[in-house]
Amino acid sequence: MTLLQGGPRSRAGNPIRFRSPLRGPWLTSVFGAVLLAALPLVVITGLLDYVAYGPGQSIPGDVGWLHLPFFDWPTRPSWLFRLTQGLHVGLGLVVVPVVAAKLWSVIPKLFTWPPVRTPAQLLERASLLLLVGSILFEIVTGLLNIQYDYVFGFSFYTGHYLGAWVFVAAFVTHVSLKLPTMVRSLRSRSLRAELRTPLADTRPEEPDGEIGLVPTAPAAPTMSRRGALALVGGGALFVAALTAGETVGGPLRPLALLLPRSRNPGGADAGANEFPVNRTAAAATIHSAATGPSWRLDLRGGRVAQRLDREMLLSGNGPLPLHTARLPIACVEGWSTVQTWTGVRLRDLATLAGVPNPASAFVDSLDPGPFGRATLSAGQVLDPESLLALRVNGADLSADHGFPARVIVPALPGVHCTKWVRSIDFRAV
């Protein structure tokens, strides 16, 4: 798109060349309307994911008055977390081309001098600075997090969460200030007419006065507005095609080029265990000696602790019948998958431990890392499809997928579906 002379001037007073005849309040408002519809959904699903981790487990934990009210995250529908996390990551990636187009459309405003003439302009410029800075921070940190393992010099979770609140404050302020202008601009032209206008008939928008986006000396157009909209829309659809496989799976899974973990075939194992894995046994420093024949599951909570080996759990006899459930597992990095799990119900284990109606359960694993333990609510323990899984798709769990036993709970974030479980403490209060 050609640059356009006129309008903004540099600090030295020289004209800055922004000559594209496509720039103007209408095109900027179209991109803004798309973001106004999409970005709140990205924010809401992200905050719901924070709540899904549960009290005492959400990261960051100490956020002062930014702390959200927690509630027992439901286990039904079983695909709830898969939906919220998939929308948060997937839609967040899809809007990147629209964000880039919106920034391109308003770039002349960055070079306006003097930058502030009135207190209202000061508020607008400050909100815009925070808005642009926070959304770029969220995009960059989000992209790096789904691509690589913890490459930051700070906590991704803390930075991303606090950055989200900065964005929310700036977004609400900016929308409050600019919504009337956006509505007027959208009414100034017909979208249907613009989509029928070819390059040869493309003309600059009418002079926009103090808004300052329309060039005073436009160059000849090199692209029509419908072409610009098609370019941005096509970019968004292209990103969608490269990310949809992370959630829907199937033949689209190999196309998930932006989310490499979703294409991980399950570490070194194949067959029934050939589905994504985030943290491998090697990465968690799980040694085969600890998961071999000597492994035992400790059940606590009642008067007498119980200790079970894997053979006893797999026998399906007595108070611990085996149960099979087809359930999704979803990760914070954006990938999810649905598999068939076989194991012992957590509620049956609670009954055996002497706590048939637990208020919660603390799961501990062989993983020494921060995600090697989790607290489950009463509803999560008592759901009829909440399992201590021993097998998947008819085969033993692989080492990378949590052998000898892992937790699978409907709608629970994958990080709390603890692998390599060694003990469960059922708590009555």
Explain this structure.
With 429 residues, the chain is an alpha+beta fold. The chain has 2 domains: 25-246, no CATH class; 288-427, Sulfite Oxidase, Chain A, domain 2 (Alpha-Beta Complex), CATH 3.90.420. It is built from 12 helices and 10 strands. The protein has helices spanning 25-52, 80-94, 96-106, 119-147, 156-187, 191-195, 225-243, 245-248, 288-291, 310-315, 346-352, 378-382; strands spanning 297-300, 306-308, 322-330, 336-345, 360-365, 373-377, 387-392, 395-396, 406-408, 421-427. Strands 2-1-10-5-6 form a 5-stranded mixed β-sheet. Strands 3, 4, 7, 8 and 9 form a 5-stranded antiparallel β-sheet that branches. Helix 1 (25-52) packs antiparallel against helix 2 (80-94). The chain is elongated, with a radius of gyration of 27 Å. The protein starts with 24 loop residues before the first helix and ends with a strand. Residues 1-7 and 10-15 have low confidence and may be disordered. Keywords: Membrane, Transmembrane, Transmembrane helix. Residues 294-427 form the Oxidoreductase molybdopterin-binding domain. The chain crosses the membrane at residues 26-48, 87-107, 128-148, 160-179. This is Molybdopterin-dependent oxidoreductase.
Keywords:
12 helices, 2 domains, 5-stranded antiparallel sheet, 38% helix, 429 residues, Sulfite Oxidase, Chain A, domain 2, 5-stranded mixed sheet, alpha+beta
